[in-house]
Amino acid sequence: MRFSSVVFAGALLARTAFSFQSGSSAHSISRMTALRSTAATEEAVAAPKSFVGSKLNDLDIAKEALAKFYDDIEGVTIEPTTGGVNNIVQYITLPSGERELLRIYNNGCDSMRVQWEHDILKQLNTFDLSFGVPKFLETKEGTTMVRLSNGADACMCELIPGGLPKLTAVEDIGRASGELNTALTKVDIQTSRCNVAPYWKMWDVHHAVTRESFEEEMNGPHFDEVRETADRMLKETLDIVDRCEGKYQSLPIQLIHGDLHYDNVLVDEGKVTALLDFEFAAFDWRAMELAICLSKYAGEEPDAMPYFVDFITGFAKTGKLTKEEAEAVPDLINLRILSNIVYFVGRHQAQEDNISSVTTRIQNYEKRVKWVNENSDAIVKCIVDEMGL
Fold first, then answer.
1. Which PANTHER family match (predicted)?
2. Alpha carbons 263 and 259: distance in angstroms, whole number
3. What is the topology classification, in CATH, of domain 18-158?
4. Are strands 77-80 and 88-93 parallel, antiparallel or unpaired?
5. Architecture of the domain made up of 170-387
6. In 3-state terms, what secondary structure has residue 307?
């Protein structure tokens, strides 16, 4: 699965802040002398080399990362962002008041994927887009990513203004998403460099998971408390994989964002200011982008359809699908939702995450899949009508 791991919104600060103190200048950061919370360091435990987590439990790693960008590391405050389950993302405030973003990847030490994301964004930053995308800062050596002593990669980004939209600004998010879908066709990058699997290759969604290990895990004791839901979702997953592998192989393929939903969007006064988190960009079915976007709204109470209509209306202004693609979208939405289950099982098997990441969400996933199945005809009709297919 591709799950939100970056929040750039300046307003979404958690309370705990780590501060590096000194009388030095803005880019002067050297040793940690003060913490607002000493408990964080006292309770931190050493993680396996491939495991980073989504919370900052090792302040030395943060200091090590910052030292790659600045000569000293005193006087800097580190504050966690809200949300994010894949990577560590922290707000960085320099003594000058300038604010940036530190990201430490928890992706199994996959530097190829990090470089892939950075190269795509380097090109997108040269395009005339109506919204911003992450812009990575250079290290002292002139690169945009560094390998840390625990095996993880780290980078820093400029802070983009805006806040998370949740269920607001839906039509404009659709418009921006269609614009990005069109713009990504102009990114010049070798397909052979992509090591992110397309969604229809479900058993490649995470390096640790196979069809056999997934079935074994879903039938195992970790899911006993949600047994009926787990059994239904296992069947839905196997069915959607078989259907997509055979039915949709003629759909157009292009570079897509791969994780575009409202938790990876910033808005200000109802307008999109940024689309974020390109870590899972991949060559996949073009229609998959719209399906991913819509999947987050599926099952919203009291009625998700108005969100679908607004989003599709916006997307149709700047993006385009064929009728065959439109008819595939309900299945592709469910492919995306169910891939979350497979992905989190893989992360558990790789000891990158706790199984609770999926057991606590699986009933919500079932609710969304059921809603899509019940409303598939209306979803297709809306796309066909808005795009004039």
1. AMINOGLYCOSIDE PHOSPHOTRANSFERASE DOMAIN-CONTAINING PROTEIN, AMINOGLYCOSIDE PHOSPHOTRANSFERASE DOMAIN-CONTAINING PROTEIN-RELATED
2. 9
3. Phosphorylase Kinase; domain 1 (3.30.200)
4. antiparallel
5. Alpha-Beta Complex (3.90)
6. helix
Local structure of 35: helix, strand or coil: strand
Per residue in 116-168, pLDDT tens?
999 999 999 999 999 999 999 999 999 999 999 989 999 999 999 999 999 99
What would the two tokens of residue 144 be?
């945009």
pLDDT tens digits, 294-329: 999 999 999 999 999 999 999 999 999 999 999 999
Quick one: tokens of 375? 């409303």
pTM of this structure? 0.84
Domain boundary assignment for the chain? 18-158, 170-387
**b/e for 46-81, b at 16 or more Cβ within 10 A?**
ebeebbbbbebbbbebbbbbbbbbbebbbbbbbbbb
Contact 355, 213 (CB under 8 A): no
Q: Burial-class residue 286 by CB neighbours within 10 Å (0-12, 13-18, 19+).
A: buried
